Automatic annotation (TrEMBL):
It comes from Nelumbo nucifera (Sacred lotus). This is Uncharacterized protein. It comes from the Eukaryota.
Length: 474
């Protein structure tokens, strides 16, 4: 049998193209990270059989290719027959099956459908017309396709609902209140109108001295971290011209140690940035809750409070009376004696779950803290109302808190308690800005009565209570 030259050319061209088939096209990746193993359908797999529902079963070759398959899927979806079983061929004799459901493919257009895996709803495949040789080529280039897919893969973000209200009620030592403690120090103003401030090194030195002085007075705290905090302010005049113009690259190095720098916004307004310092610290032995229960006939609580120069309120005296005093019944007297033996102040950190710690140093150098007069009045009101008082104190030894068994009566240890070595305490970041606590061999004051302070917070607040009593009895 002979053939002319034109017929031979057409046959060789068809052979080069290969047989037309319907192939798999992966649209969405698996969430199980196994889409490239042999059990999952891959781009280039040849579709051999489609079994839709329990009645329709179609084998290749498919009439009209991909378009015919899409018509079958559309008709089945309209009849609500969405269950489909796909059998594909990989290579010459390897077969893989997929159980899926028919879903609309919104990105491909109207009346276009794709298959979503039953086992992994995130994995979806579609259909495409290819030649058998093209499919074999794709199947043989699996490593190349994996690398290509890796370069195109992107992580997706999402949202997870979280029971915040229940967590902060159940998982915090004090419900709805954190155990993170800090002091914010504003830079010292160098003039009356607060247009210029001392440099950052001066503010860091103030933070360092405040921490060291607190530890030396017997407050059982340890350094945790330190950071700068930027606060916006308005600037004008000479200050604005000297700060806003300092924006060249050569001047950037000078900003490392300044407490005030400025810039100009889009409307030409001069804005200043004040760099404050936030000092993070923590009690050495944690916070310990103590409940003072009251009863009819209590004329006094049996203890006095005072305040250190650094703003901490502490128990300065406890009545050494009979067992019928509220401070004795609660165990506060025994805890106070243990603090005295360890040369530590029994610092109040919370009253009725409210923090009563110093929280800020103003630009004039005044420490914002709580007033002992108003606190004494509140404690006295508790006594008159016969409402229990819940206080938290700083501990210097975790073993003491464990002996007490939680909220309730403190069980005093008959043996003297030594302070915990600082190197055994909470881990602290080691950086060039770290402030080291005082070593254990530094001499501490014999007792809290040695500190006599004025019951005011700075120059302006509580001026009517400006007297020099060392303590306030309740």
């Amino acid at each position: 049998m002979t053939m002319d030259r034109n017929q031979g050319s057409e046959n060789s061209e068809a052979a080069a193209k290969g047989v037309a088939v319907v192939a798999i096209d992966c649209l969405k990746g698996s969430s199980k990270a196994d889409e490239w193993n042999g059990d999952m359908l891959q781009t280039g797999d040849i579709v051999e059989e489609l079994k839709i529902g329990s009645l329709m079963w179609v084998r290749s070759p498919f009439k009209n290719g991909k378009q015919g398959v899409q018509k079958l899927l559309h008709d089945s979806f309209k009849k609500k027959e969405t269950s489909i079983h796909v059998r594909i061929r990989r290579g010459r004799d390897e077969f893989v099956e997929l159980q899926a459901c028919i879903v609309p493919n919104e990105f491909a257009g109207k009346k276009q459908y794709m298959l979503r895996s039953i086992e992994d709803p995130n994995y979806a495949v579609g259909f495409v017309d290819r030649t058998e040789s093209e499919c074999f080529e794709l199947q043989g280039s699996r490593s190349t396709r994996v690398v290509s897919a890796l370069s195109r893969a992107q992580l997706q973000d999402g949202y997870v609902s979280y029971p915040w209200e229940r967590r902060i009620q159940e998982l915090l030592p004090v419900p709805n209140s954190s155990c993170f403690l800090s002091m914010l120090l504003l830079p010292k103003a160098s003039d009356r109108v607060a247009s210029r401030y001392n440099d950052l090194e001066d503010t860091l030195s103030r933070a360092n001295s405040w921490l060291n002085a607190s530890q030396a007075s017997g407050v059982p705290i340890v350094f945790m971290n330190i950071q700068t905090e930027s606060l916006l302010t308005k600037i004008s005049g000479e200050t604005a011209s000297s700060t806003v113009n300092a924006g060249s690259l050569s001047d950037l190095s000078n900003l490392a140690n300044v407490s005030l720098y400025g810039f100009e916004d889009y409307h030409g307004v001069d804005i200043g940035v004040v760099r404050a310092v936030r000092l993070w610290y923590a009690p050495i032995g944690g916070e310990f809750a103590l409940e003072i229960k009251l009863k009819e006939g209590d004329t006094k609580l049996g203890f006095a409070i005072s305040r250190t120069e650094e703003g901490f309120i502490y128990i300065s005296s406890v009545m050494d009376a009979g067992e019928d005093v509220a401070s004795t019944r609660s165990g506060l007297r025994d805890l106070y004696k243990e603090a005295m033996r360890a040369s530590k102040l029994l610092v109040l950190s919370r009253v009725s779950n409210q923090k009563v710690l110093p929280w800020m140093v103003s630009s004039t150098g005044a420490i914002r803290c709580y007033d002992t007069i108003s606190l004494s009045q509140k404690l006295s009101l508790h006594r008159h109302a016969l409402k229990p008082i819940l206080i938290h104190v700083f501990m210097w030894d975790r073993a003491l808190a464990c002996q007490s068994g939680g909220i309730g009566r403190f069980r005093a240890n008959p043996t003297p308690v030594m302070p915990v070595p600082y190197e055994m305490e909470l881990p602290r970041p080691t950086n060039e800005s770290q402030i080291l606590p005082l070593p254990p061999d530094v001499e501490l004051p014999e007792g809290p009565e040695l500190r006599i302070e004025r019951d005011t917070a700075g120059e302006l607040s509580f001026r009517f209570h400006d007297f020099s009593l060392s303590s306030n009895w309740v």
